[in-house]
């Protein structure tokens, strides 16, 4: 088959899937519940039925997951983190006022009036390792961030998307990060 999905049709299906994901509570459900949700989307005449005119049936589930629902989850993460700026996070965690000196999508560098440098990396609780890796890569690629041989302080800003996460999970992650001198702020909507 392999007919190109028109942009308008893709946008229409994306909007529909986002609405269905909101109604389902996608970000707060278990993997097995979301697996059943994706199966229902594949079988839905408005979603899978329409997509079947443009792609092989075996590719529909992958398209829904990779092209639509991954973006949905990232959108929810951005909404949660939107109200938690890197400077606010540093103020809350370290009780120090800072100014941003470099900001990218998920990583920010801030400096205090005393000259301390902080790297704040944003991500999700379930992928906290990715947020840590991004902070470490930035520090490795920009050695001028270290002052007198001391690397910047690292703080992770983690969005909690799945409310099935327990306090024990948070304690475990906080403790693991504390062991390497990294602080964490958990953010919820």
Describe the structure.
This protein is elongated. The protein folds into 2 domains: 7-75; 83-187, no CATH class. Helix 2 crosses helix 4. It starts with 6 loop residues before the first helix and ends with a strand. The protein has 189 residues and is an alpha/beta fold. Helix content is 52%, strand content 17%. It has helices at 7-24, 31-43, 45-51, 57-82, 86-94, 128-141, 167-178, and strands at residues 98-103, 107-112, 117-124, 153-159, 182-187.
Q: What's the SSE blueprint?
A:
Blueprint: H1 7-24, H2 31-43, H3 45-51, H4 57-82, H5 86-94, E1 98-103, E2 107-112, E3 117-124, H6 128-141, E4 153-159, H7 167-178, E5 182-187
Parallel strand pairs: 3-4, 4-5
Antiparallel strand pairs: 1-2, 2-3
Helix pairs in contact: 1-4, 2-4
**Tertiary shape:** elongated
Structural class: alpha/beta
SSE string: HHHHHEEEHEHE
Largest sheet at a glance? Answer: 5 strands, mixed
Flag low-confidence runs: none
> How far apart are the first and last residues' alpha carbons, in Å?
42 Å
Q: Count structural domains.
A: 2
Strand order of the largest sheet: 1-2-3-4-5
In short:
By secondary structure, this protein is an alpha/beta fold.
Notable traits:
single chain; 189 residues; alpha/beta; five-stranded mixed beta sheet; 7 helices
